[in-house]
Amino acid sequence: MTSSSGNERLAEPLARAVGERTAATLSKLGLTTVGDLLRHYPRRYGKPGEFTDIRSLRTGEHVTVMAEVRSATVRTMRSRGGAMLEAIVSDGRDTLQLTFFAKRAGVLRMHEDKLRAGRVGLFTGTVGEYRGKRQLTHPDYVIVGVDAADADEAIYEALRPIPIYPAAASAPTWRIARAVRTVLDPLQEEEVPDPIPDDIREREDFPTLLEALRLVHEPEHESDYERGRDRLRYEEALVLQSALARRRAAHASLSALARAPREGGLVDALDARLPFELTAGQRAVGAEISRDLAGDVPMLRLLQGDVGAGKTVVALRAMLQVVDTGGQAALLAPTEVLAAQHVRALRALLGPLGDGGMLGGADNATRVVLVTGSQGSKERRAALAEAAGGAAGIVVGTHALLSETVQFADLGLVVVDEQHRFGVEQRDALRTRAERPPHMLIMTATPIPRTVAMTVFGDLETSILNERPAGRAPTATHLVPADNPVWIDRTWARVREEIGKGGRAYVVCARIDPTEPPDAVDDSDADDVLDLEPARERPPLAAATEVAATLAERPELAGIRIGLMHGRLSAEEKDSAMARFASGDTPVLVSTTVIEVGVDVPEATAMVILDADRFGISQLHQLRGRVGRSTAPGVCLLVTSAQEGTLAHERLSALVATTDGFDLAERDLELRREGDVLGSGQSGRSSLRLLRVIRDAKVIERAREDARELVERDPQLGDHPALASAIVEWLGEDQEEFLERA
C-alpha cells in the first residue's frame, strides 16, 4: 500500500527493485510496485514433516505440493527418442509422479542429483493424469535445505515456517518469496508509514507495519506470522471503518425536509384496506423508518428482508408518509420486468388510493406512474409530466429515472430495490434532484449477516424483516443427480403434477443458448455462475433455448405449452412471456436468472434449477423464493452433477437443510475464500486480504469503535495522514462505492 507522501519506496516499480525479468512474471499476479508485492501475503505456511494431502489434489489445478522424494530415475525413451526422468514423491500415504523430458539423459542428471530419496521439497505445477496416475510435468521445485546460499542459510530454511504464496506457473511461490526478501530486507521504518495511530498500536501491543510485514513474510516461528496477521487484519478493519465513519459524519451534516406522519392520511387509509394483518416485524421496521422520515437529517437506511418477508408493503407505507406531506417518492428497480411488476403490485395494494384525479379515486388519492427506457414517446411524456407537476406521488422506474429529463416537483424519498445493482453515483443522481437531499431507503432481498452489514454498509442504519407473512406455505428443496435418468424422469413428472393442480413451474438455466462459451451466462440476468469443480470434465451448461425445445418433446410434459424468458428479449416480449405464464397459457417457463429478484406469480409452485452447482447459495435462495408465494406449498428441485464431498455439493446441501436466508448467507461466507466478501471486481486490488467478516467480527467491532472516535476528534484525519492515505489508496476518492456493493 502506498501513500501520496512519505513512502515513495513502496511506490517504486518492481522492475527497478527486482529487475525486469522478475517484475514481468510478478505482473501476471497483478503486482507492479514494491507495496503491491509486500501486500501479497502468504496463503499458508509449510514446515518439513507437514506434507500436502496428495489425495486432495484435483486434475487441472495449479498447485504447490510439499512432499518427500521417494525415488528419481532417468531412462532413455526408445519409442520417441530422448530421455525422461521420473521421480516419485509422497506425503506418507499417497504418491505423486514428477516427470521431466529432455533430448539427452545428461541434461536430466542435475535433477536426479537434487531429487534424492529422503529429501523434502516444494513442487509447483499443474496436476495432470497419465495411465491413471496423477503427475506434475516439468514442475518447478525447491529442495528444503539444499537450495540455499550457504550451510547456515540451509539450516535456517529447513527449520523455519515456509511461506506459500498465491502463485502462477511463471511465478512459483519461492520466486515470490525471494522477490519479497529482496525488497523487504533493506526497508527502514520511515519508508513504511503506519496507518494505525501510535496510541492504538501501543494499546493493542501491535507491531509496526514494517515489523508485521517481516513477521508474515519471514517468520521464524508460527507465533510470528500469527502476530503479524492479527495486526494486519485489524489494519484492514480500521481503514474500512474509518472510511465509513467519515461517510457517516458527512451525511449527518446534511439537512433534509422532515416528513412527519399525518394522522388520517394515506398511510392510515392503506392500513385500513389491506386484506392482511401486518406482521410484528413490518410494524417495528415501519416505526423505525417513520421516525427517520420525521427527522431533519436525511434517512439512509438499509432494509433487509428475506424472500417473501413483505418489504414492498413496508416501502409503500414509507412512500405514502412522504406523499402525505405533499412530497413525492421514487422507486428505482434494476429491471423493466421488476419495475412493471412493482407498479402493478403498488396499484393493487392502493386500489382507489392510487387513482388520484380519476373517476372512482379516493378524495386524498395519489398516482403511481412508470418510467422506463422502452416506453413509447406518448406514454413517457405523460409520465414525465405527472412526475414534474407533482400529480404522481410515486414514480417507479429503471435506470431511465436517472435521466436528466426526469424531474420532480418535490422529491422526498428515494427507494432503491436490490441496491447492489446500482452504483453510488447512480443513486446520487436522484438525490440531487431535490433542493434538499431526499431520504433514502435501500432494500435488498439478499440476507446479509450482521458482520457483513457492519463492514460493507457501515454508513447505513439497518432494519431486518425475518418473518414470513401469515399464510405463506413452505417450499421443500431436493437435490436431483444429473446423471440419474430415473430421478430426472421423476423431476419432470413432478412438474406435470404441479401443473395438474393448477400450479406453474419455472425451469432455470445458466445461459441463453448453446452457442455461448461453456462458462458464459446471461450478463443482463445473473450475478455469478461459479466453477466449483475444475477437476472433472462436465457437460456444458444447459441453455434456455435448447432446454425449452427439449422439454416440448418429453412425454411427461406432452400437451403442456412452454414459454421462454431471458435478458435478450425486449421489454414487451418479457411482459408478454410473464403474462402468459401467470395466466397459465404457458404454465412452464424456461428462463435464465432474469426471474431471480422480485418476480411474483402466486400460482408458481415448482422450480427446477439446472446446473444448480454453478450458482452461489444466495442466488439459489433468491431463485427458490419465486415459488411458495401463496397458500400452496412449493417445491424446488436442484439438478446437479456435483459429487458428494465437494464444496459445490456442500453448498447445495446447506440450501436443502434450511430456508432461513440469514443462516444461508452466513454459511455462504464461511465457504468462500477470504477476501470475497467485498467482491473481487469492485475496486481493483481493494478486496479484503486477511480479514474475514464472520471469523473476525470482534476485530471489526473494535476497529469500528476506534474509527468512530478518531473521526469524531479529527473528521478529515489531518493528524493521521497515513490512515487518510490508506483510505485513498485502498478505496480511491472516487471508488468508495466499493463499500456499498456497487
Give the SSE map.
Elements: H1 14-18, H2 20-27, H3 34-38, E1 44-46, E2 62-76, E3 83-90, E4 95-102, H4 109-114, E5 120-130, E6 133-137, E7 140-143, H5 151-159, E8 162-164, H6 173-184, H7 198-204, H8 209-217, H9 222-252, H10 266-273, H11 280-293, E9 300-305, H12 311-324, E10 328-332, H13 336-350, E11 368-371, H14 377-389, E12 394-397, E13 411-417, H15 424-431, E14 439-444, H16 450-456, E15 461-465, E16 475-481, H17 485-500, E17 504-508, H18 544-551, E18 562-565, H19 571-583, E19 588-591, E20 604-609, H20 617-624, E21 634-640, H21 647-657, H22 661-671, H23 697-713, H24 721-731
Parallel strand pairs: 4-6, 9-14, 9-15, 10-12, 10-13, 11-12, 13-14, 16-21, 17-19, 17-20, 18-19, 20-21
Antiparallel strand pairs: 1-8, 2-3, 2-5, 3-4, 5-6, 5-7
Commentary on this structure:
The chain has a 7-stranded parallel β-sheet with strand order 11-12-10-13-14-9-15, sandwiched between helices. It has a 6-stranded parallel β-sheet with strand order 16-21-20-17-19-18, sandwiched between helices. A hairpin with a 2-residue loop joins strand 5 (120-130) and strand 6. It is 36% helix and 17% strand. The two termini are 23 Å apart. Among the domains are: 48-159, Nucleic acid-binding proteins (OB fold (Dihydrolipoamide Acetyltransferase, E2P)), CATH 2.40.50; 266-294 and 310-444, Rossmann fold, CATH 3.40.50; 475-658, P-loop containing nucleotide triphosphate hydrolases (Rossmann fold, 3-Layer(aba) Sandwich), CATH 3.40.50. The longest helix has 31 residues, at 222-252. Mean pLDDT is 84; it is low at 1-5, 517-536, 673-686 and 734-742. It is built from 24 helices and 21 strands. The chain is an alpha/beta fold and 742 residues long.
